[in-house]
Amino acid sequence: MFSQKYIVLCAGHHNNRVRACDVHGCGAFNSKRGNGLHKAVDLVCDDYGIVNAPFSGNLAGPVSRKDPAGNQYDGVKLLSDVDCVKLFNIRPYRYIGPVAQGEALGYLLPLQERFSGITSHLQLQKCDGTDPSPFI
């Protein structure tokens, strides 16, 4: 079985729009980030906006990562029989248990306080490091 197209993740939006380039970089997969490449996709969302499950599956616990500057980003892992993603920059309502496609997972955390001029977004990363762009 193969992954299917994801629904719109950010409530109030009509599509999954990749963050364009701003003063802090670009949101596309493999965009340059410091000395490396961005192995995720940034999707434009509204601060404190509801973030929906892109597919049905199970929440598999909290995830976090740090960038080279030491900033920490938190989120949640969602997996199914055919897919696995990590969603960062969100505050999940819960970290474990089943979710249906389109169900509210949590809300977007604002980034403006740490990164003035950045476009508000969530970060969508495939667990295996491959490009999620074909599914958005």
TrEMBL record:
GO terms for molecular function: metal ion binding. This is Leukocyte cell-derived chemotaxin-2-like. InterPro entries: Dup_hybrid_motif, LECT2. The keyword Methyltransferase does not apply. The keyword Electron transport does not apply. Keywords: Disulfide bond, Metal-binding, Signal, Zinc. It comes from the Eukaryota. Belongs to the LECT2/MIM-1 family. It comes from Seriola lalandi dorsalis.
